[in-house]
């Protein structure tokens, strides 16, 4: 790494320019984290990614910087994406350009070997960016239907009379709509983030980390279906109030804790069946 005064000054100028260029993008991103419950975990992404980068400091110091001019091309391309996003009022483009600009800056100032070491921390930052609305809806609506089907089947098995019309569950005493907020996408994204962090700190083998991360997806889908079924059964037995207000919100938190506990159990099973993994960074890029 560059440790001279001249190098530090150049790094300071780059950081200042980065902040000035993306300040408004950062502000809008933070506002989305604050107002959109689907991405409230975004506040944790940057500190965690910074820790991942800091953890690699010795490896970064051990190799000499070999700047690549290709990094400048990546930076300029990312700025072009930023401008396109601003002119087209497309928030996703302005935000995704942050990752490109950061990647290009590392490549331009330090080189390929440094970029390889920092690939995971930089890639982890993708989790802080809300996906485009068109893609979000393509994911959320099928999850709504899946959760409503799961709820219908579970309630029928529990001898609760129910009729499903799309994502609406019609009970004898009330009607439940599996809305977008109940699709499970919120818990899926948050659980995936936690699973990645869990896998990273619990085992250094890449395949184990991938297995733990991927296992969080079916876990989130199944546990959300159980929540919908439980809400329907409670509404049938105790009235519509059981599916609203505090009870509804509390069940969401309770199910998320259960989902994380199940993901943790899967990680422990993998560690038991295939011992030998040690906590810590993988020697390569992950």
Q: How would you explain this protein's 3D organization?
A:
With about 290 residues, this protein is mostly helical. The protein folds into 2 domains: about 5-130, no CATH class; about 135-275, no CATH class. The chain is built from 11 helices and 3 strands, in the order ααααααααβββααα. The protein has a 3-stranded antiparallel β-sheet, covered by helices on one side. A hairpin with a 2-residue loop joins strand 1 and strand 2 (about 170). Helix 1 packs antiparallel against helix 5 (about 90-110) and helix 8 (about 135-155) packs across helix 10 (about 205-240). It is elongated, with a radius of gyration of 23 Å. The mean pLDDT is about 85.
Name a few traits of the molecule.
2 domains; 11 helices; 3-stranded antiparallel beta sheet; mainly alpha; 71% helix; 286 residues; single chain; elongated
Helix percent reads: over 70%
Strand content: under 5%
> What is the overall number of helices?
11
Shape: elongated
Q: What's the rounded overall pLDDT mean?
A: 85
List the helices and strands in order.
HHHHHHHHEEEHHH
For the biggest sheet, the summary is: 3 strands, antiparallel
Q: Could you give the order of strands across the largest sheet?
A: 1-2-3
Query: How many beta-strand elements?
Result: 3
Distance between the termini: 19 Å
